[in-house]
Amino acid sequence: MDFDQTMELIGRVVDGVGVTILLVGALIALIPYLIALVALRATSDDYRGLRRNLGRAILLGLEFLVAADIIRTIAISPTLGSVAALGLIVLIRTFLSAALQVEIEGRWPWQSHEKD
């Protein structure tokens, strides 16, 4: 197995980890909410918890997917076109991450935590 094949395999493994995090995280977030919903005791707090936990799973999964893209692009085919495509993918995923962060915490990532 040569270097390019090894990097492609590593990229695919990291992609798989990212997708697994998304799926498992979605299930972990959804199951308690569905149990509360079926028991007819779901509240708005349960729904907010579902959104917060699902958002966290998506954020973590996106981090792994970006890492896999970086590994494949930089290690395997560092052409101008592939680096530009990577830049666009990272830009889109960074925007999604920031938007999810605002949804989860109710503040921009660069804003300080409010003191209670």
Walk me through this protein's architecture:
- By secondary structure, the protein is mostly helical.
- It has one domain (3-105).
- 82% of the residues lie in helices and 0% in strands.
- It is built from three helices and no strands.
- It has helices at 3-38, 44-76, 80-105.
- Helix 1 (3-38) runs antiparallel to helix 2 (44-76) and helix 2 runs antiparallel to helix 3.
- The longest helix has 36 residues, at 3-38.
- The model has no long low-confidence stretch (mean pLDDT 87).
Short description:
The protein is built from three helices and no strands. The chain is an all-alpha fold and 116 residues long.
Q: What does the main sheet amount to?
A: none
Helix content: over 70%
End-to-end span in angstroms? Answer: 56 Å
Total count of helical runs of at least 4 residues: 3
Unreliable segments of 5+ consecutive residues: none
* Structural domains: how many: 1
Secondary structure: elements and pairs:
Elements: H1 3-38, H2 44-76, H3 80-105
Helix pairs in contact: 1-2, 2-3
List its traits.
116 residues; mainly alpha; elongated
